């Protein structure tokens, strides 16, 4: 009996230390604070430990598209990990991948694979904006706003911005110029009723009334980018002085130029068509010889 007492005490002591090491809150906390990272630098983090990014450039996510992504995640899992930054023990904040984060919640996941980064608020904003810009389904205006935020809130210059997003300075500037367009044109770009090509042509129109007139015609007649560029180009041609005759608006001038081209094609020679705002004008059809004149008269069915 005397031999059993120390043995039982030793066994109890050993089991007690093991229990402390196994069930220690400190060990659990350490496990939570430092999630297991695989060889690619990705850790599985509980969704409940992640808060959304307050600097997220996108404020609207299509519900139907989100449901489709959630279904894909249920079947295939997360293909591309999200990126987070560590705030505190068991607390993370999303840097990029909010659609995947929200869709994972819809899919019923408890944890999500993530890259853990160290970043301050400005770096958070910059990473979120750049990741957002690299998405394929952004419209031109969303890209323009993201560029503007990178310049103003991240204190970048246009050259630095171009390096960050992989674009030259001219391309960056073309997007930024969209923000100077009237609200109605910006709304059309946002709603994808107007392409970047159309918008770039309209940017070059200095007079807002002319700009809006061409914009309205573009939507009503579904004009191609080339036709809009032709309308804009017509504005740069010399206009008659107000003393001579009232000037034509750009839409009317475009229509006259288009008709002039049709007449030239019909008669096979250069045709001059002039008209004023009162719809008065003249048509000139030159000929180079008597045979050329006869050809034109035949077209007119006069001989």
TrEMBL record:
InterPro entries reported for this sequence: Chromosome_partition/occlusion, HTH_ParB/Spo0J, ParB/RepB/Spo0J, ParB/Sulfiredoxin_sf, ParB_dimer_C, ParB_N
Keywords, in A-Z order: Chromosome partition, DNA-binding
Residue ranges constituting the ParB-like N-terminal domain according to the UniProt record: 43-133
Entry keyword annotation includes DNA-binding: yes
Gene3D superfamilies: 1.10.10.2830, 3.90.1530.30
Keyword DNA-binding: yes
Taxonomy, superkingdom: Bacteria
SUPFAM superfamilies referenced in this protein's UniProt entry, alphabetically: KorB DNA-binding domain-like (SSF109709), ParB/Sulfiredoxin (SSF110849)
Family assignment from sequence similarity: Belongs to the ParB family.
Name by which UniProt lists this protein: ParB/RepB/Spo0J family partition protein
